[in-house]
Amino acid sequence: MTTSKPLFIYLQRPDTGTWVTVGRYLRDADGTGRFRYAPTYLEASLPWSIDPVNLPLVGGIEHLAYRYQGLHDALRDTCPDAWGRLLLQREFHLPDSAHDSDYLRVARNGDRWGALAVGTTRKPSVDVICSPRLVQLESLAEELLAMYERRPAVNARMRRMLMATPA
């Protein structure tokens, strides 16, 4: 019996930059994690495994995870760090005992770096997945310099994100 709602895992293809659904993750009542590659992903013959050692591209099987409260290594890597967790706990009123998958569910993909994203729908939403781009690097540098020089915000949204605190 599963206790979690499915989380769908998306991958940004390195060859085209488009987002595809790789598979779905569930967690059982006993804490076992289950990951299964999407049949459409396997049928498309896309060669990228999200973890070639622990999650090889094999169709029709569920890859089980018993360690780390049932979260596969590749998915653990997409989780927010301790600082991010504190911010999410404050914003979404998550308890200290929240499972990593709870953080994956509420964390914004736009705040994540890397080729993986997480969502609650089978099809990735480009509106929700707005990966940080290197073109934002200049804006980030400007905002950090403005903060260092104690000047007003150049980019108010970015300043709020940089100034967010857990309490």
Report on this structure:
The model has no long low-confidence stretch (mean pLDDT about 85). It contains 6 helices and 5 strands, in the order βββαβαααβαα. The protein is of the alpha+beta class and about 170 residues long. Helix content is about 30%, strand content about 15%.
Structure, briefly:
By secondary structure, this protein is an alpha+beta fold. The chain has 6 helices and 5 strands. Strand 1 (7-12) and strand 2 (19-27) form a beta hairpin.
List keywords for this structure.
6 helices; 167 residues; alpha+beta; 16% strand; globular; single chain; 2 domains; 5-stranded antiparallel beta sheet; 5 strands
Strand order of the largest sheet: 4-3-2-1-5
Secondary structure tally: strands: 5
Q: What number is the mean pLDDT?
A: 84
Q: How much β-strand is present in the residues? A: 15-25%
Alpha plus pi helix count: 6
Give the overall shape, derived from the CA principal axes. globular
Class inferred from helices and paired strands: alpha+beta
State the order of secondary-structure elements, H for helix, E for strand. EEEHEHHHEHH
- Most strands sheet: 5 strands, antiparallel
The figure for the number of domains is 2
| Oligomerization status of the protein chains | single chain
**Helix percentage range:** 25-40%
Between the first and last Cα atoms, what is the distance in angstroms? Answer: 37 Å
Layout of strands and helices, then pairs:
Layout: E1 7-12, E2 19-27, E3 33-37, H1 39-43, E4 63-65, H2 73-76, H3 82-92, H4 100-106, E5 116-119, H5 136-148, H6 156-163
Antiparallel strand pairs: 1-2, 1-5, 2-3, 3-4
